[in-house]
Amino acid sequence: MASDLDYPPQQVESAITDRLVEVAKDWSLAHGLCVRPPPTVIPAQAHPGNILATPVPVTLFPSPFPESCFKQGLAVQRAYNELYASISQDEEFLTEMVKQIGNSDDFIQKLWDVHLRVKAEGYVQSISLGLFRSDYMVHQGSAASSPGIKQVEFNTIASSFGGLSSQTTALHKFLNKQEYGYLGRSSTSSSLNLPENTCTRGLAAGIREAFKVYGPSKSSNAIPKCVIFLTQGGERNIFDQRHLEYELQAQASDDRMPIFRLPFSEIGDRTSLTEGDKRVLQYRPPHRESDTYEVAVVYMRSGYGPDDYSGDSAWNDRYQIERSAAIKCPSVLTQIAGTKKVQQVLATPASADSEPPTLHRFLKPDAASNTKAVADIERTFTNIYPMDTSAAGQVARKIALDPQQCQSYVLKPQREGGGNNIYRSTIPEHLKKIPEKNWDAYILMEIITPPPVYNMILRNGKLEKGNVICELGVYGTCIWDQNKATAGGANAILWNESEGYLLRTKGDKSEEGGVAAGFGCMDSCALVKDI
Question: Torsions phi, psi of 384, nearest 5?
């Protein structure tokens, strides 16, 4: 279908291209499809009031994406939500994961130490919120086989770009309706299958539901409740977060829900816990320090990497959040559940025929409701290996150090945020620079190589043309109650939804794909039968 349409078109008159660029730039600025400009584009001293914005890098056309793969990603998301909710409740399993990587990954060990400190005194909040995103690339084993998706990673903290993704879909729908007709009959609006994208609305609904589940004020003297967005200082991707914030406020129009942005570095200055066993988290906004709010939900858009923790005081701040009565998104255990090590253990086959796969620990295939979920999840797994001293790890180490074999692999640390991975020929040299005892903090993944498509990327006012590859992210929201799970109840999961998608695109020669890290761009799907 894509080839029949000659889509995206490669031969476009320069006057029409110029018009598309101008319309896309103005639409993006008018609708908040923006980021704060990087210093390489506009020096910080040129806008000391932090008042400027620049369009986010975006494709001029929605990229062709197999409809079957798109539907596969949406269909499996609820099963993935349930899986990671179950993992976050399994302390025994997570203990083993931390043992395997904690000695060589100080950040993960310190997160675990926060959990142990809270556990020693007892948790006061059993409910957790997950705003998840599962990322995939299209894989086709042979020309004769049907395409499917293979998982790149599963994100349990700061799963970003929901706000900008909805706006990107809206931009492409606008261009399709108003502008693509100038390109000729092959690319008119009737030719493109552009799916709806409700991720901003869905993610906001998850936070809204957690706010409801928190219940009435737990303070001795009832005070207004609020939601905290825990942020990073100097955040360039602020408009993505604002779209979610504004949608959340719109959903709460009949019932006021104060929302405040709190930099991670100001937790100690702006929050406190009430005395006694309730440990209510209270917040004092800087613009009205006489007011006090009870924090019902903490939504973390920071705290996912070591750079957010400047010292012991920052770790004590994370401890204060974790031990409080606020519903965390995510809790420390949910954050650890999202490490690459967990992904590797889930995907690695059992070492013995008599030993069930780790996935079956959380979703038992003998349960009628889980049989399809297990099969659907297993179909998304790709080849992932540990880098420890196990038999599988020794195989991985041999591959990683071999100048030829390593060309098909990526070495991944237990980090979020983009720009941390080691690719192909650079793997052996990287490993030689770090102590061998620290290798087990990594996992080795076979690189997924999706078929490239042609597109044009508008980045910092300049147009890049050529082949690109796409990465699909599917959002999910989940709320669960640890107490019900501990008691063996069947209703530990209180909320479980699949909530729209993200498409990120990069040049087919680029390794990393993070938009915020400066590698990829925003995109949306034009669904096709094949590519």
Answer: -130, 140
Binding residues for ATP: 153, 340, 412-421, 423, 445-448, 471, 506, 512
Model confidence at 188: pLDDT above 70: no
Helices (H), 340-474: 340-347, 359-362, 368-378, 391-401, 427-433
pTM: 0.93
Q: How far is CA 487 from CA 50, 86, 129, 221, in A?
A: 51, 14, 19, 32
Which sequence spans correspond to the domains of the chain? 14-382+448-528
- Identified catalytic residue from 81, 88, 128, 155: 155
Q: What is the DSSP letter of 121?
A: H
Q: In what order do the strands lie in the sheet with 384-386?
A: 384-386, 443-446, 409-412, 422-423
- Active site (annotated) includes residue 417: yes
256-298 tens-digit pLDDT? 899 999 999 999 999 999 999 999 999 999 999 999 999 999 9
- Whether residue 322 lies in the annotated active site: no
Amino acid identity at 461: G
Lookup result for tokens 């087990």: 440
* Binding site, annotated residues: 133, 153, 155, 157-160, 235-237, 241, 301-304, 340, 412-421, 423, 445-448, 471, 504, 506, 512, 515-516
- Give me the phi and psi of 57, to 5 degrees please: -55, 130
Q: What is the mean pLDDT of the chain?
A: 91
**Tens digits of per-residue pLDDT, 43-56?**
877 777 788 999 99
DSSP string, 177-225: HHTGGGG-GGGSGGG-------HHHHHHHHHHHHHHHH-S--SSS---E
Q: Which residues pair with 507 in a beta bridge?
A: 468
Helices vs strands, H then E, count in the chain: 17, 21
According to the model, what pLDDT value does residue 4 have? 46
In sequence order, what DSSP letters do the residues of 265-304 get, joined into one string?
Answer: GGHHHHEEE-SSSS--EEE--TT-TT--EEEEEEEESS-S
Residue 442 has pLDDT above 80, yes or no: yes
Tell me if residue 504 is catalytic: yes
Closest CA to 156 of 478, 486, 484: 478
pLDDT, one tens digit per residue, over 297-316 is: 999 999 999 999 999 999 99
